[in-house]
Write a structure and sequence with these properties.
single chain, 113 residues, mainly alpha, rod-shaped
Length: 113
Amino acid sequence: MATRKIRNPELNMAVDSLNDAARHVRTAVQGKIDELRSAATAELAKAKAEALKKTLATQNKVESALNKAEARLHKVIAKAEKSLDKAMREAEKRSAAPAPLPSKKAARKSAAR
């Protein structure tokens, strides 16, 4: 849409001044928006870093607890294996030992029947 050319020189100067002022205001507002954006980005980065720090601390605690539990489990398994080996050796000794001889009392009882 075409605009009319203003013939009054004072009005032309006023229009030019308003255009310049509008450009300056736009530049100033754009600068403020950029400042706010960078401040918000910095705050978000701080919050993200803090959350990451807390997450890593929590993760370290969980890993520590898991490592302790795993160590306990290995100890219990080793102890159970030793107990099983001991029980097996004792059972093998018992099965390899000769059968006890019957006592005289047992022989008398079986003969009396």
